[in-house]
Design brief:
By secondary structure, the chain is α+β, with helices and mostly antiparallel strands. The protein folds into 2 domains: 101 residues, Roll (Ubiquitin-like (UB roll)); 136 residues, Alpha-helical ferredoxin (Fumarate Reductase Iron-sulfur Protein, Chain B, domain 2, Orthogonal Bundle), CATH 1.10.1060.10. Strands 2-1-5-3-4 form a 5-stranded mixed sheet. A two-stranded antiparallel ribbon has the order 6-7. A hairpin with a 2-residue loop joins strand 6 and strand 7. Helix 3 packs antiparallel against helix 6. The longest helix has 18 residues. The chain is elongated and about 60 Å long. The structure holds iron/sulfur cluster (2 copies) and FE2/S2 (inorganic) cluster. One iron/sulfur cluster binds next to helix 4 and helix 6.
C-alpha cells in the first residue's frame, strides 16, 4: 500500500452499465482525479459527477459509515466508499457495483429488497408475546454487559458487503448470510425476546441458515463495521446443535 503522495493523479476505473439501456454493454470508464489530503472515494465520486460526468450514479446518504448506502466493490473487495481513504490505495482504482443485488445503474444497487425479505423472513423484532401494548409498564432491566453485547451486533448497517463476499450465497440464493445470522444471534441474546430455541431452529437450523455456512469468514474480513461475525455464527451453530440433540 502506498503512503499519501501529494498531487498523485488517481485513475478511477468505473464499471458503467444501465440495465434500462441494455444496448450499451457494460464497459469500464476511466476518470483522472488529482488526489487531495484526506480524500475518500465518496469525495472522488462526487468530483467525477461534478466535473466530468453528471450521469454517473452511485448511492450515499450519511457520508459517515452509518447508512450503509455507498457499498461497492473497490479493487474487487466489498466496502464502503465513504470510509475508504484514497491514500490507502494505489493510483489505479477499480470500482464496480456489489454483485447479487439488483443493479439500478453504474454503482447504484438496490439492497432494500433483499434486506426487507430477510428481515420479514427472520422476524427481526422483539417477540415479547404480550397481546396488548402497555405503555405504563417499566422497561425490563438488562445486565449492562449483555446490553453492550447486543448493541455491538445492532451496529450492522445492512450494507450488503458480507453478502457480496459470501461464497455460499452464490450457490444458495436463499442463504441468510452473515447479516441474517448476526440478526438472529442478536435477538436470541435479547432476554426480552421470548422465542424458544426450537422457534429459532425453524428459522436458521438448515442449509439456508447456519448449517450452510462454510465458515471461511469472507464476511468478517469485509464487514466495514467490524462486527464479530465469526463468534456469532459459532454461537448460533452451538445453539442449533444443542437444540437438535435435545429434540
Ligand atoms: S454484517 Fe457487516 S458487512 Fe454485513 S450487512 Fe452488516 S455491516 Fe454490512
Ligand atoms: S463464514 Fe459463512 S456467512 Fe461468512 S462468508 Fe463464509 S459462508 Fe458466508
Ligand atoms: S454514505 Fe452512508 S455509509 Fe457511506
Amino acid at each position: 500500500m502506498s503512503e499519501i503522495v501529494k498531487g498523485r493523479i488517481l485513475k478511477i476505473n468505473i464499471l458503467r452499465f444501465d440495465p434500462n439501456e441494455p444496448k450499451i454493454l457494460p464497459h469500464m470508464e476511466t476518470f483522472e482525479i488529482e488526489e487531495a489530503y484526506g480524500m475518500t472515494l465518496y469525495i472522488v465520486l462526487n468530483m467525477i459527477r461534478e466535473h466530468h460526468d453528471n450521469s454517473l450514479m452511485f448511492d450515499f446518504v450519511c457520508r459517515a459509515g452509518i447508512c450503509g448506502s455507498c457499498s461497492m466493490l473497490v479493487n474487487g473487495r466489498p466496502t464502503l466508499a465513504c470510509r475508504t481513504l484514497t491514500s490507502k490505495l494505489d493510483e489505479n482504482i477499480s470500482l464496480a457495483p456489489l454483485p447479487l443485488f439488483k443493479l439500478i445503474k453504474d454503482l447504484s444497487i438496490y439492497t432494500g429488497e433483499w434486506m426487507r425479505y430477510l428481515n420479514e423472513h427472520l422476524e427481526t423484532w422483539i417477540h415479547d408475546q404480550e397481546q396488548e401494548l402497555n405503555v405504563d409498564k417499566l422497561e425490563e432491566r438488562m445486565d449492562p454487559d449483555l446490553a453492550d453485547e447486543i448493541y455491538e451486533l445492532d451496529r450492522c448497517v445492512e450494507c450488503g458487503c458480507c453478502v457480496a463476499g459470501c461464497g455460499t450465497i452464490q450457490m444458495r440464493p436463499n442463504f441468510k448470510g452473515a447479516v441474517g445470522l448476526n440478526k438472529v444471534a442478536r435477538y436470541h441474546l435479547d432476554p426480552r425476546d421470548k422465542r424458544t430455541d426450537e422457534e429459532y431452529y425453524e428459522l436458521v437450523g438448515d442449509d439456508d441458515g447456519v448449517f450452510g455456512c462454510m465458515t471461511l469468514l469472507g464476511c468478517e474480513d469485509v464487514c466495514p463495521k467490524d462486527l464479530p461475525l465469526q463468534s456469532k455464527i459459532a454461537y448460533l451453530r452451538r445453539m442449533m446443535i444443542k437444540t437438535a440433540i435435545k429434540n
